[in-house]
Design a protein that fits this description.
Layout lengths: L2 E8 L3 E8 L4 E8 L11 E2 L1 H19 L5 E9 L5 E4 L9 E2 L7 H9 L3 H8 L8 H11 L3 H6 L3 E4 L1 H9 L6 E3 H4 L5 E2 L4 E2 L1 H7 L8 E3 L2 E6 L10 E7 H8 L7 E6 L3 E8 L10 E8 L2 E10 L3 H10 L9 H6 L8 E3 L17 E3 L7 H25 L6 E5 L6 H11 L3 E4 L4 H14 L5 H5 L4 E5 L5 H16 L2
Parallel strand pairs: 1-5, 5-14, 9-12, 15-21
Antiparallel strand pairs: 1-2, 2-3, 4-7, 6-8, 10-11, 13-14, 15-16, 16-18, 17-18, 19-20, 22-23
Helix pairs in contact: 9-14, 10-12, 12-13
The chain binds adenosine-5'-diphosphate (ADP) and SN-glycerol-3-phosphate.
Family: Belongs to the FGGY kinase family.
Pathway: Polyol metabolism; glycerol degradation via glycerol kinase pathway; sn-glycerol 3-phosphate from glycerol: step 1/1
Catalytic activity: glycerol + ATP = sn-glycerol 3-phosphate + ADP + H(+)
Length: 490
């Protein structure tokens, strides 16, 4: 009988269920998009019911079509959009409000007030994060403050908080398990990454009752047996990690100095710093990369909010292209020094600027600027933002020994060549770019005993193509100076 690991990848715009064979090859995959809600300027919400039903449907479909004929799922992994916050009733399982998504900026002024009290260094020393609406704590607080009756119900222990992994686990286990893993906990602004525990002083600061919080497990652990998962009933969830950490794991960046960068809606660069929680002096985040056998491994992270979303905007907002794949031939026919800079600060700027109030702009337009220059500038913006992160890491005294890339945008060879050129570093694309789902499968497989060690997993990584820098230092510096000038004008 063929054996598989099922990975549930619950992302910002869609949910995927992917069946991996035990060598880490994709056997079957299903994906479903779900609606995004923008109830006010800067607000982004998901209906948790949509998230749950998209997960159910993709899992059912993949199980029915591909696993029906004698196949067996031996372990389940969950990976998820991080920080997104749900509060639900422990008895009914019903959410008390929509999920507030990581991109949501509604708590910006509250974050500003905390920063003006000088609290950021203290919060950062415990959590590795900055005070920003991005993280869960201020979103939880907003629900407690603004939804009628919720604070009282929370204090009585009637409600549960979770990031999406936790919400899905609760539903899959029929409301028995209220758990999360250390990577997801490390994105809440409530978790002390040094003690690996919820921090009572932070809970007090944000006014959040501890009784709301899930139990924090290793990333490879016994999360619970599935009882409400259709054909998955009887199998166990054995791996959980936030999607960027899962991508680092799937890219098998297990050694200190190894880094991955994922180019999906946003871009997230993560560098393994081993057992040291290095504190950045240049506004990068310190986070838990994974926790295995009770031992946390840490990472430095640069989070860019808008990467592939720029291409979606060029397609859907400006209608300059019909499909993302048209961007590659357009850029190939355009000199890199066309002089147009597109800064996609649609929802503010993330690392290393952390400016929630910045907004996007296009600079350097002339009478002969056309579609191809604007599209090329859109692709280049993703690479320049990665360069910003590389610079911040260098100022912290760190240079990645390898950069492995993944996510939807890495199908674009032009982007990866320009990335290598602007970074002045080699960029490696693996054969399997669904590394996020793969990471969750590897974690589950590790707990199931299918894989004996991280070294064994590292041996499964395969390179599809390496991109070597060919640009001169002079050209690189000149192009990047133009980007910096544009960003400073925002
Ligand atoms: N050939 C391409 N060139 C540039 N961007 C692309 C290409 N193909 C896909 N994209 C972009 O990649 C993103 C999709 O990547 P994906 O990893 O599926 O995102 P997410 O998981 O965040 O939803 C989209 O924003 C899309 O615009
Ligand atoms: O769902 P994605 O792939 O856009 O990832 C979102 C990140 O986890 C946010 O921190």
């Amino acid at each position: 009988m063929s054996q598989y690991i099922l990975s549930i990848d619950q992302g910002t715009t869609s949910s995927r269920a992917i069946l991996f064979d035990l060598q880490g090859n994709i056997h079957a995959t299903r994906q479903q998009e779900f609606p995004q809600h923008f109830p006010a300027s800067g607000w982004v919400e998901h209906d948790p019911g949509d998230i749950w039903s998209s997960v159910q449907r993709t899992c059912d479909a993949v199980m029915a079509e591909e696993c029906g004929e004698g196949g067996e799922v031996v372990a389940v992994g969950i990976t998820n959009q991080r920080e997104t916050t749900v509060l639900w009733d422990r008895k009914t399982g019903e959410p008390v409000y929509n999920a507030i998504v990581w991109q949501d900026r509604r708590t910006a002024s509250y974050c500003e007030s905390l920063k003006s009290e000088g609290l950021e260094p203290w919060v950062s020393s415990k959590t590795g994060l900055l005070i920003d609406p991005y993280f869960s704590a201020t979103k939880i607080r907003w629900i407690l403050e603004n939804v009628a009756g919720v604070r009282e119900r929370a204090e009585c222990g009637e409600l549960a908080f979770g990031t999406i992994d936790s919400f899905l686990l609760w539903r899959l286990t029929g409301g028995r398990e209220h758990r999360t893993d250390a990577t997801n906990a490390s994105r809440t602004l409530l978790f002390n990454i040094h003690t690996q525990q919820w921090d009572s002083e932070l809970l007090e600061l944000f006014g959040i009752p501890e009784v709301l919080l899930p139990e924090v497990m290793d990333s490879a652990d016994q999360f619970g047996q599935i009882t409400d998962g259709g054909a998955l009933n009887g199998t166990s969830v054995l791996g959980v990690a936030g999607d960027q950490q899962a991508a680092l794991f799937g890219q098998t960046c297990f050694q200190t100095g190894m880094a991955k960068s994922t180019y999906g809606t946003g871009c997230f660069l993560m560098l393994n710093t081993g057992d040291k929680a290095l504190q950045s002096e240049h506004r990068l985040l310190t986070t838990v990369a994974y926790r295995v056998n009770g031992k946390p491994t840490y990472a430095l992270e640069g989070s860019i909010f808008i990467a592939g979303a720029t291409i979606q905007w060029l397609r859907d907002g400006l209608r300059l292209i019909r499909d993302a794949c048209e961007t590659e031939p357009l850029a190939e026919g355009t000199p890199v020094d066309h002089g147009v800079y597109l800064v996609p600060a649609f929802t503010g700027l993330g690392a290393p600027y952390w400016d929630p109030n910045a907004r996007g702009a296009i600079f350097g337009l002339t009478r002969d600027t056309g579609i191809k220059e604007i599209v090329t500038a859109g692709l280049q913006s993703v690479c320049y933002q990665t360069k910003d992160l590389q610079k911040a890491m260098e100022k912290d005294g760190i240079r990645p020994v390898t950069l492995r890339v993944d996510g939807g945008m890495v199908a674009n060879n032009w982007v990866l060549q320009f990335l290598a050129d602007i970074l002045g570093a080699r960029v490696d694309r693996p054969s399997l770019v669904e590394t996020t789902a793969l990471g969750a499968a590897y974690l589950a497989g590790l707990e199931a005993g299918i894989y004996g060690s991280l070294e064994e997993l590292a041996g499964l990584w395969r390179c599809d193509r390496s991109f070597e820098p060919v640009m001169t230092k002079g050209d690189r510096d000149q192009l990047y100076d133009g980007w910096m000038t544009a960003v400073l004008k925002l």
